[in-house]
Write a structure and sequence with these properties.
The chain is α/β, with parallel strands linked by helices. The chain has one domain (4-230): Aldolase class I (TIM Barrel). It is built from eleven helices and eight strands. It has helices spanning 14-21, 35-41, 44-51, 66-78, 92-102, 123-128, 136-150, 159-169, 196-202, 211-214, 219-231; strands at 4-8, 30-33, 55-62, 83-87, 111-115, 154-156, 174-177, 206-209. Strands 1-2-3-4-5-6-7-8 form an eight-stranded parallel beta barrel, surrounded by six helices. Bound molecules: cytidine-5'-monophosphate. The site of cytidine-5'-monophosphate (C5P) has 14 residues, from strand 8 and helix 10.
C-alpha cells in the first residue's frame, strides 16, 4: 500500500463538498468524510464522490456491540468505501466482527484502521473519568497491538507516534496521521503538528490534511505541495 494524502473534507454539506471537488480536474483524490457530512447527507455523498473516481475514507469511528458493528460494516462495505475505522476500545472481539462484516464475498475489503485514544482525551481525564490507570502512551500501544491482533490494517495516530507504532506492530502496520501543517501555516487548534515532509521522514503511510488544503487560497496548489513533500 503506497503513501497517499487524504483530504479531510470537513464541509457542512454536499454543495460545499462538490464545489471543492470541482476545483480538481486532473487528480484522483482520497477524501475523508466525517460524521458531520455523512450524517447530514447520508450514503449518497459517498456514492457521489466515488462516482467521480475518488477514494473515500469514511471516518465514523464505530463502537458498539460486535453484532451491530459487523452489520454496520457490511453496509459500509457495500457502499464501496476504501477505508473506514472503529474505536479499539470496542475490544478485539468487536474489531474482528468489523472485519467479518467488511469482507466481501470475493475476500476483499476496505482498509480498516483503529482509533486508539482520541487526542482530545487527556491522560488526567482518562485516569479520573474512565478509570484507566495506565499512561496514555501505554494505552495507545496496547490498543494498537489489540488492533493488530484482531487483524486490522493500522491505526490513526500522530506522525510523532508512527515510528513507535511500527516498532511494536511491525512496519507493514499502517499509520494514518492527522495534525499536518505546512511550515508557514497557522497551527489553529492542533497542538502537536508536523509538516508533510517530516511525516514522511517519520514513517507515516497516509497523512490526513484538512484546513491547510481546504482553507487555502489555492487548494489545488496546496494539495500538490502536500503530495510533492509526502509522496515523491
Ligand atoms: O484541518 P485539519 O488538518 O486539522 O484536519 C484534520 C482532520 O483529522 C480533521 O478531520 C480531524 O477531525 C481529524 N483528526 C485529527 N486528530 C485526530 C483524529 C482525527 O485532527 N487525532
Amino acid at each position: 500500500m503506497g503513501k497517499d494524502v487524504i483530504i479531510a473534507a470537513d464541509f457542512k454539506d454536499k454543495k460545499e463538498t462538490i464545489n471543492f471537488l470541482n476545483l480538481f480536474n486532473e487528480e484522483k483524490l482520497f477524501i475523508k468524510i466525517g460524521m458531520e457530512l455523512f450524517y447530514s447527507e447520508g450514503p449518497d455523498i459517498v456514492r457521489e464522490i466515488k462516482k467521480r473516481g475518488h477514494k473515500v475514507f469514511l471516518d465514523l469511528k464505530l463502537h458498539d456491540i460486535p453484532n451491530t458493528v459487523e452489520k454496520a460494516m457490511a453496509s459500509l462495505s457495500r457502499l464501496d468505501v476504501d477505508m473506514c475505522n472503529v474505536h479499539a476500545a470496542g475490544t478485539i472481539e468487536m474489531m474482528k466482527a468489523a472485519i467479518k462484516g467488511l469482507t466481501k464475498e470475493d475476500g476483499t475489503r476496505p482498509i480498516l484502521i483503529a482509533v486508539t485514544q482520541l487526542t482530545s482525551t487527556s491522560e488526567e481525564r482518562m485516569q479520573k473519568e474512565l478509570l484507566i490507570e495506565k499512561t496514555i502512551d501505554e494505552v495507545v500501544k496496547k490498543y494498537a497491538l489489540n488492533a493488530k491482533e484482531a487483524g486490522l490494517d493500522g491505526v490513526v495516530c500522530s506522525p510523532l507516534e508512527a515510528g513507535k507504532v511500527k516498532e511494536i506492530c511491525g512496519k507493514e502496520f499502517l499509520t494514518v496521521t492527522p495534525g499536518i501543517r505546512f511550515a508557514t501555516d497557522d497551527v489553529g487548534d492542533q497542538v502537536r503538528v508536523t509538516t508533510p515532509a517530516k511525516a514522511k521522514e517519520l514513517g507515516s503511510d497516509y497523512i490526513v490534511v484538512g484546513r491547510p488544503i481546504t482553507k487555502s487560497e489555492n487548494p489545488v496548489e496546496a494539495y500538490r505541495k502536500c503530495v510533492k513533500e509526502f509522496c515523491d
